[in-house]
């Protein structure tokens, strides 16, 4: 029996309710976005203040990405079932409470645990921000609302590195996290008072794929632990962790194949285009994750930049994304995604190789800026077409699921890269305390990151094709952030027929 049709959303963007919805979703998503751009700037100072080794700094980044990547699809499903506004508000409050714990952390261990809790909050609020827009706005205003949300989010991403550097050099690194508390105190009451509730009546009666979410997160956690601890941990413990991580991954695939309503229906990968673009996503965001983790450390540890200078040094990439991504999306619509998804990674790879010029006493204008500009142009060329192609590679009813899977793939790729890259280049646990040792490891890492991007370009050139014109919807052209592609609403989680 067909499910009853749901009432079409009717909020107009010019109404007071529409403006409140936009403000709420921008505030909520900005909390997660700011954390993703400012924490890496603070890593050297955190390490010195808490007397943490490189592994602790890796976990400071990865603990957040681990729980976010592992639970983000489940977070979207919870919003569909219990109410998108309700779960969004819970996520905002949870994220703020975890941020407070991060800001008060007396040790690296407490900070890592709090970052993992932050990721849980992020998994609840991140899908909810765009889901609220999709569920609330009139169809005629939806694309414009998504564009405004993305534009304001781009501004937030642009000021993130500057703000993070200023906080680290000024009030201290703890304010990188404490800043989320007043944002949450503003966001949550506005959401409860002015944002209409919505849920998907079609999901009632279905069970949650809790086992799938647990196995996916467990696999990522064990593999990440093995990679980070390999240089200094017990070979037996590391080997057992790696084997258990692989076994958990195999079990995850088996569970998803057998469940009637899985978190990640494997049938969606029968689309060759979808599988290919996700492979490109893994390559691109693995390279970006490793690059941004190491680059801010290189600028501070080796080049002698302050936290503020290191944050501002990377600002051109975000500015280019902010002003040119929409045009890049339009270009991808006209010529197809194959060329942008081939040229973009190659340009980004060239930018990373240019970073090899950055050493002790590096000049920003002659050494850093050319690399950052080339990298930024590459990111502009690939991110919007990548997001659009993911959504266009499946039918409209699966767009939310497709984007959620792609977002999780991007975060997982960055997670593994941050864990594996120091191991692959022989970076010791105290390397970030020595300019010479870190510089040598950085010079081995950049060619690896560039090589991963070249692999992504080859995959794109050989497998990606232009989707049919009716798949190129306006909302597909909204640009993503530097960290990961934007999420479409998760309410389209209907089982693949």
Automatic annotation (TrEMBL):
Gene3D superfamilies on file: MFS general substrate transporter like domains (1.20.1250.20), Multidrug resistance protein D (1.20.1720.10)
Keywords from the named record: Antibiotic resistance, Cell membrane, Membrane, Transmembrane, Transmembrane helix, Transport
Any Gene Ontology biological process: response to antibiotic
Residue span, Major facilitator superfamily (MFS) profile domain: 21-468
Top-level division of the source organism's lineage: Bacteria
Residues that span the membrane, as ranges: 20-43, 55-75, 87-106, 145-167, 173-195, 207-228, 234-255, 276-299, 305-326, 338-356, 368-392, 404-425, 445-464
Membrane disposition: Multi-pass membrane protein
Protein name per the record: MFS transporter
Taxonomic source organism: Streptomyces fructofermentans
Upper taxonomic lineage: Bacteria, Bacillati, Actinomycetota, Actinomycetes, Kitasatosporales
